[in-house]
Design goal:
single chain, about 950 residues, mainly alpha, 3-stranded antiparallel beta sheet, 41 helices, ARM-type_fold, Rtp1_C1
């Protein structure tokens, strides 16, 4: 310690150039930048102080340095090197000796009390290292380093480079520069730059045969550079390399050495991060940081291994940028470099594709156990955010979106799961951006294939990756702010991508993309209709009894046959109501019309006897064509060219009159002339007048409009019939009127419409009646309308018995007491009309009545239930036809009529029913006894002819 103490005293007596602020280095003596004379005076002072404490002659000092630094190849020249009289050289040798001794004998890293170094002494030591580096390393670099503009290093013009001295200086600083406690801020950045420049100077001199070194010495110098790379900040290493490489005057060997060193460091782990931070500190304002680094990184001459190493580094760097908000400013650097590397060759593309698949593989084929979390939620959010930045933050720097095509179904499924939660808006936005970017960058043909595969849920799509069927997203019970992703043991779940896609499209500004997808979905409808016959054959060929997978088979058949079409129709309905879509349709009617024409052609190719669902689809298509024609600004010639021939062909190939009305109306709009049959000529003005009256607020005007509509419907006006959907909508809206006169006339309008639209009207009213979302008063009114329509039709309503009976029997199960009362009352009157048509519903009807009587708590509903049986008996004409139903009805009515605890009104209804039954039985017996008895002998089996309409007894049925 005594030896080291003298060096602390020596440091305190020395004078150093004012390189750093005085406050940083305590009480040491500092001078400002001075002239060369002042520098020489300072060096002279410091050399005198050195000689006070270091008594060795210069020759012996140099020899000792060479031996300690293991530079045996220049040991013979120690005497010559020690004979110098140059102040800078003397100062350098003394200084190297001192800093080497301090570095070897002081433990700067230790925290032990006996090893602690005063902060004042440490600052003095740093200042000494800086000063000695200026007079030793910087004065003996390769001459090329002092040339060029701007010059990185400087020295007096008469100074000559001594590579032997430089070796000694480098050896001495190797003991000092790697002591980490000395790296306070940027205190040793300049000495490190000079140290590296010194090593490269020796390598350049050896390469140019200006200086001779053994192979071992070359290895030692390269090892020193490696130590700088591993021990010190890599950004500092690259900064120094860039500063030296910026000198255009360097010889070709020098440029080659620096370029090789740059590439070696760039390809090694952490190289890309280091070059980014290095160039960020010393970038040229003429070029952006992204351009500088991407040009340096994306070089076709690099080996395939080096390029893959760089890609892996960049991906890790980008992940760090996503996780650390402070690094987001460098995101563009990594993205542009990655994109240019990706575009270099197919090997790099394959490597990136493999990396992407490895990131998402856990969601495709998870390896964890059932009911356990697949991955941490924060990691999942980080993954999605990373993909978002890779593909969506720029159109130039990001990776091409075609990489996401194979994962579109997977990403849509993830969005389908998370869109129902409110605390993941950022994640939802990133998923939307990924999906939209992937779809937006597809050409027309590929987009059609993608949407078709999504809509029809094709699992055989080329290269298609899907989210594992057993993965489920739900709330994390341990953290209410997060979700969790688990592999459920409940089995796979069914989902459809179209609802999620529609939500994404409607919330975006990609209006043209939305319009194109709308057209693609619309074009799928005729394709589905063509597949109807094949699906029907498959369903018919499926055996009624199958093995244990019968339920799954049925579900699969139903899902493939109906669910796909249903989701497509719902998607179209949702999109067409989107306001921007309406604007797009107005501006691009021609494309939509061609699509509609294709659908009409497909309909014309189908059989005349269309299935019910295809009739509805065709009706919707025809209505849509008329709406488009009415709002379009295109010329009539365009419509005539596109639609005329398909409409005429379709008119010849269908039989349904309501569809013909629609087609005739369209043809008239196309031709703009009255050359069609007068009976089917649309009277647009009359219809619009009636429509305006019905939509008025005054009740008497509404009634007048309804009267006009009834007349138009009764005379089968083609324009009115073709606008039947609008008439029905007005009628339903008018039903809500509190005025009874308006209501009664509205019922007449529905009765007239039934003769034209038939099933559609009753289907619609039935849906309105059983819809729980509607108000009770409105549903009761609709029930009255249905009943009055049934009365108006009379016995003809047997065609709609399935709709009528099912509608009211569904209402009998309602939890609303008043609604059950209305349903039973309506059912009673309907049973009187349809008595001979209720055989197949009798058991269910009897069950409903029995359940209401025994379990119901609302007395008026019980009375109405008994009234159903009474009216059913009242409507029977020939009791023989109802012999299976009579005994259960008789027993129930007899029990209710004579049960003392029954309600009086219930007993009255039951008694009336029994009385009606008794009268009908008496009449039946009188008819039998009044007819003459005849004996007939008949041999069965010979020329028998069955009597149509008569019910055979079971004993005589063959």
């Amino acid at each position: 310690m005594t030896k080291i103490a003298k060096y602390w005293l020596l440091l305190e007596s020395m004078q150093f150039a004012a390189i750093n602020d005085k406050k940083e280095h305590g009480d040491a003596q500092y001078l400002k930048e001075s002239s060369l004379a002042n520098d020489m005076q300072r060096l002279s002072h410091n050399i005198r102080e050195f000689r006070k404490y270091i008594k060795l002659p210069m020759k012996d000092l140099v020899r000792q340095l060479i031996e300690d630094l293991n530079l045996k190849h220049i040991l013979g020249e120690a005497v010559e090197l020690g004979e110098t009289e140059d102040f800078a050289t003397l100062y350098s040798f003394y200084g190297i000796c001192m800093i080497k001794e301090i570095a070897n004998n002081v433990n700067f890293i230790s925290n032990a009390k006996e090893d602690l170094v005063a902060e004042r002494h440490k600052c003095l030591f740093i200042a000494c290292v800086q000063d000695i580096a200026q007079w030793s390393l910087q004065q003996h670099l390769h001459p090329n380093f002092y040339k060029g503009r701007p010059a990185l290093f400087s020295r007096p013009h008469d100074k000559k480079t001594s590579f032997k001295n430089l070796e000694i200086y480098i050896g001495g600083f190797t003991h000092v520069l790697f002591i980490k406690p000395l790296h306070i801020g940027k205190s040793l950045d300049e000495p490190i730059l000079q140290y590296m420049a010194g090593i490269f100077s020796l390598l350049m001199a050896f390469e140019d045969k200006e200086y001779v070194m053994a192979d071992q010495e070359i290895i030692n110098k390269t090892a020193c550079l490696q130590r700088v790379w591993l021990s010190l900040p890599k950004a500092l290493y690259f900064r120094n390399l860039m500063l030296m490489k910026n000198n255009k005057i360097l010889s070709s060997s020098g440029q080659k050495i620096l370029q090789r060193q740059l590439l070696v460091r760039l390809w090694s782990p952490g190289g890309f991060n280091a070059v980014v931070f290095a160039l960020a500190e010393c970038k040229n304002e003429e070029h952006s940081l992204e351009e500088l680094i991407s040009r340096l990184i994306a070089q076709p001459a690099y080996s395939a291994k080096a390029q893959k190493s760089l890609i892996a580094q960049i991906l890790n760097f980008l992940q760090s940028c996503v996780d650390n908000q402070e690094l987001l400013q460098y995101m563009g650097v990594g993205l542009l470099s990655l994109r240019r590397l990706y575009d270099l060759n197919d090997e790099n593309k394959t490597f990136v594709e493999g990396w992407l698949q490895s990131q998402l593989h856990i969601l495709i084929q998870p390896s964890c156990e059932k009911d356990f979390a697949i991955m941490d939620w924060s990691n999942f959010q980080s993954l999605i955010s990373f993909l978002f930045h890779l593909f969506c933050t720029s159109t130039v720097e990001c990776l091409p979106s075609n990489l996401l095509t194979s994962y579109l179904n997977l990403i849509l499924n993830i969005f389908y799961h998370v869109q129902q939660y409110n605390n993941v808006q950022l994640l939802q936005g990133q998923l939307k951006a990924l999906i939209l970017k992937c779809l937006h960058n597809q050409n027309a043909k590929d987009l059609h294939k993608l949407i078709e595969a999504l809509a029809l849920q094709r699992t055989d799509f080329n290269g298609w990756f899907a989210l594992n069927d057993c993965i489920r997203f739900d709330e994390n019970p341990l953290n209410s702010q997060d979700l969790r992703i688990i592999l459920t043991s409940e089995g796979p779940h069914l989902w459809d991508p179209l609802p999620a896609l529609v939500i994404i499209l409607k919330s975006s500004t990609f209006n043209l993309l939305t319009y194109n997808i709308f057209l693609i979905l619309f074009r799928l409808l005729p394709k589905l209709m063509k597949e109807d016959e094949e699906e029907k054959k498959i369903s018919e060929s499926m055996e009624l009894l199958q093995p244990e997978d019968l339920q799954q088979t049925i579900l699969r058949e139903v899902n493939s046959t109906y669910a796909g079409r249903l989701h497509i129709i719902k998607a179209l309905e949702s999109l067409v109501q989107h306001q921007p879509m309406k604007c797009m349709i107005n501006e691009n009617c021609s494309e939509l019309l061609r699509c509609l024409a294709d659908i009409l052609i497909n309909f014309a190719e189908l059989n005349k006897h269309l299935v019910e669902i295809n009739e509805s689809t065709l009706m919707i298509t025809l209505i849509l064509i008329r709406e488009v024609m009415q709002i379009s600004t295109s010329s009539s010639d365009d419509f005539q060219t596109v639609l005329s021939k398909p409409l005429h062909n379709l008119y010849e190939n269908i039989d349904r009159q309501s569809l013909k009305y629609q087609i005739l109306s369209l043809l008239h709009l196309l031709q703009r002339q009255n050359n069609l049959n007068v009976r089917y000529e649309p009277l647009k003005n009359q219809f619009e007048e009636a429509r305006g009256l019905v939509e008025a607020k005054e009740s008497y005007l509404q009634v007048e409009g309804i009267e006009k509509l009834i007349k138009l419907v009764n005379c089968r006006d083609a324009y009115t019939v073709s606008n039947g959907h609008a008439v029905v909508a007005m009628a339903l809206n008018t039903l809500k009127s509190p005025e009874s006169y308006t209501f009664l006339n509205c019922v007449r309008l529905f009765t007239a419409l039934v003769h034209v639209m038939e099933v559609e009207i009753l289907d619609l009213l039935g849906d309105e009646y059983i819809a729980d979302s509607s108000t009770l008063d409105y549903r009761l009114v609709v029930g009255e309308v249905i009943l009055k329509i049934g009365r108006e039709l009379g016995p003809l309503c047997y065609k709609y018995k399935f709709i009528l009976l099912n509608c009211f029997m569904n209402g009998c199960r309602s939890h609303l007491s008043e609604f059950r009362l209305s349903a039973f009352s309506n059912l009673a009157q309907l049973c009187r009309i349809l008595t001979y048509q209720v055989h197949q519903y009798f058991q269910e009807l009897l069950h409903l009545i029995d359940y209401e009587i025994t379990s119901g708590k609302y007395l008026p509903a019980k009375r109405a239930a008994v009234l159903v049986l009474s009216d059913l008996l009242e409507g029977m004409d020939n009791l023989i036809d109802y012999e299976e139903m009579l005994l259960p009805i008789y027993r129930l009515l007899k029990y209710l009529a004579y049960f003392k605890q029954s309600d009086e009104q219930i007993r009255v209804h039951a008694t009336n029913g029994l009385k009606s039954l008794s009268e009908k039985c008496t009449k039946l017996l009188e008819d039998i006894t009044a007819s003459p008895l005849e004996k007939e002998i008949k041999i069965l089996g010979l020329k028998d002819s069955s009597k149509p309409g008569l019910k055979k007894h079971i004993l005589v049925m063959n």
